[in-house]
TrEMBL record:
One of its GO terms (biological process) is response to toxic substance. Transmembrane segments: none annotated. This is Small secreted protein. It comes from Paraburkholderia tropica. It comes from the Bacteria. GO terms for cellular component: membrane. Residues 1-18 form the signal peptide.
Length: 45
C-alpha cells in the first residue's frame, strides 16, 4: 500500500511539473508574438 501511494505521489508531481513547463512555454510564445507586433508597428510609423 505504501508503494502505491508513493507511486501516485511521484506521478502527480511529474504531471504538475510538466504543466508548469507548458504554461511557461505558452507565456514565452505569447510574449514573442507581442514583441513582433510591436516591432512591426514601430517600423510602419
Amino acid at each position: 500500500m505504501k508503494r502505491l501511494i508513493a507511486l501516485l505521489l511521484v506521478a502527480a508531481s511529474a504531471a504538475a511539473l510538466a504543466a508548469c513547463n507548458t504554461v511557461a512555454g505558452a507565456g514565452q510564445d505569447i510574449s514573442s508574438g507581442g514583441h513582433a507586433i510591436s516591432n512591426t508597428a514601430e517600423q510602419a510609423k
